[in-house]
Amino acid sequence: MTLFGDPAVWLPLAFAALMGVSILVYVVLDGFDLGVGLLLPLGDEAEKDRMIAAIGPFWDANETWLVLAVGLLLVAFPAAHGAILTALYLPVAVMLIGLILRGVAFEFRAKTTGRMKTRWNWAFFAGSLSASLSQGYMLGLYIMGLEHTAATIAFGVLTAVCLTAGYGFIGATWLIIKSEGALQLKAIAWARRRLWGVIIGLGAVSLASPLVSERIFDKWFSFPSMILLAPLPLMSALLVFILWTALKHLPAEDDKWSWVPFSATSALFLMAFSGLAYSFYPYVVPEKLTLYESASAPESLFIILLGALFVLPVIIGYTVLAYTVFRGKATELRYD
């Protein structure tokens, strides 16, 4: 029976692809608005309002992709969902508290002034920081096979710091697009400093992944896989060079190249995600559960797929609509 003829084979693969796309889109989109939250204390009072305005129309829609990814994991791979959330219960709880705090702070800061507004600004920063650090820590533990040892926890802390720097970086590149004047100059400087965190984070994950798994080592360094995978690190190095060059020459006349850092960063995240996806396939829980071992029954997956094919275009549609309607430079954030 061919690959696409057996539902027990292609349905888990299709759901893994949908889940992977959802996670990637979430990391890019919610990554930049978490990043803006991380950068918030660096702006003055007027700049803080403009920074919030740069993400105001988008941040809650961006989090929809996280809900979609977790929902797909739950319904399509329930065994993996249980194993992953059991191992990562505490950082997941910290992430959810951070996301809730961000939402509350976003609304309340717009309805107060003075000292209380300052406190809500700090709450928005705290929520962004806790969500970013917890996501990075979960990534590190996932790469290390969800094991809790001194070495894996140390690696989780490293990836937490590096992913937070990466979010701050993509947040700065978003502000380069959405801001102008002094704030845009500050965003360029913030991005230049945080590029090193992105480079260190990518290097750490790239070095650790083959070292923690003999299977991944063989997938990376056996022939002809070694040749087929060569474009990933080469493209990543080219994208880092593009970022370095673009940030060095910004701002440009008429603001015509302001989109380059954000686009290159998104492509860099895509390269990193593709490498991780290749490395861990066919496992959902590293070295423990494959797609096929943890998948729901094909009959259930088929029904769920019909629902997903209805929901996904709706999510894509309103995401595209939001980014189209609110394109251009950020203006004053108003509630009247």
Account of the 3D structure:
It is a single chain. The chain is mainly α and 336 residues long. The protein has helices at residues 7-39, 45-55, 59-62, 64-76, 78-87, 89-109, 114-143, 150-178, 181-212, 214-221, 225-229, 231-249, 260-280, 291-294, 298-325, and strands at 283-285, 289-290. It contains 15 helices and two strands. It has a two-stranded antiparallel sheet. A hairpin with a 3-residue loop joins strand 1 and strand 2. The protein is globular. The relative contact order is 0.14.
Secondary structure elements and pairings:
Elements: H1 7-39, H2 45-55, H3 59-62, H4 64-76, H5 78-87, H6 89-109, H7 114-143, H8 150-178, H9 181-212, H10 214-221, H11 225-229, H12 231-249, H13 260-280, E1 283-285, E2 289-290, H14 291-294, H15 298-325
Antiparallel strand pairs: 1-2
Overall body shape? globular
- Main sheet strand line-up: 1-2
Radius of gyration: 20 Å
Roughly what fraction of the amino acids lie in strands?
under 5%
Q: How many strands in all?
A: 2
Count of separate DSSP helical elements: 15
Give the low-confidence spans: none
Helical content band: over 70%
Structural class estimated from helices and strands? mainly alpha
Mean pLDDT: 86
**How far apart are the first and last residues' alpha carbons, in Å?**
61 Å
What is the ordering of alpha helices and beta strands? HHHHHHHHHHHHHEEHH
Largest sheet: 2 strands, antiparallel
Features:
80% helix, 336 residues, 15 helices, two-stranded antiparallel sheet, mainly alpha, globular
